[in-house]
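Troubleshooting log. The previous structure file for this entry was overwritten by mistake, so regenerating from the original sequence record. Sequence copied from the archived sheet and checked twice against the printout by T.R.
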Amino acid sequence: IAAELGLGCQKVEVFPGRVVTIMTWQGTDPQLRSILLNSHTDVVPVFEEHWTHDPFEAFKDSQGNIYARGAQDMKCVSIQYIEAIRRLKAEGKRFPRTVHMTFVPDEEIGGVKGMELFVKRPEFQALNVGFTLDEGLANPTDAFTVFYGEKCVWWIKVKCEGNPGHGSQFIENTAAEKLNRVITSLLQFRESEKQRLKCDEHLTLGDVTSINMTMLSGGVSFNVVPSELSAAFDIRIPPTVNLQVQCPFWQGSRSPREGVGCTFPQLCVVAVTLPLTALQAGHPALGFSPMNHTPVLLHDHNEYLNERVFLRGIEIYACLLTSLASVPPLPAEG
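Regenerated output below.
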């Protein structure tokens, strides 16, 4: 694809078997800091028995809904980046700022062997990034959501040890009793945060702590009280300080955004990790996926995206890129 579009292409193996692909559209003033369009290539597993169509077929129904794992998270955005640049190049457009597209692995399991390693490498530093766009979430309303911050992801596994014995006995001080107290405590807090969100119309999901128990393990037989049991929890903690990213790039794109007739509320992101990595590397970043009139189905059964929403997203990215890659030199750039 890079060769077809006349783009530079580089592959960086950041970990054995984990490759970051970089496509580059050179700007007319390469000294200016670049625009980075990031997306990830991995997806989460599926439970095929719960899908109406083959999750890896990309089946399109009569309403134009495309069913596929990754339709929302986030094959759509990867393709929209490419097609937006294809459209702009076909129109003969050139912009001062260089545009890089990065396609990274490992995001769905934390990015530890993907973006987290990549931002520390000289190949990333050479990109001279000034601003990053990454994934957001679908929005079931007419609006498109923009995410300016990120919850802290805290994955914990609690292991409880206790007295083993025969399943017919009332064994004292068992692992199950201990783990039950842990689970009960965390789920009680989960319910309190859920109610806080429900009762305060000014709060969004990004403003409260979410907790979900995601894995249970332990035990060897029905009739044996185990000596050890464990539970895993996915905890997402909202920012506790007022973090603001000064982003003249996004402000500079206000007119083009208004020109496509869309509303862009800005929220704290709840479920993606890569924008935060860019922020930690010292680069302003926003999470944005152009999916409105669309239920949030990332990681869900029957994940889909309507073709009209998908095609409109290409138009929106072409408009945004025209603005972002044309932002005049900032004071720090001389």
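The chain has two domains: 2-150+241-333, 152-237. Archived copy saved in two places this time.
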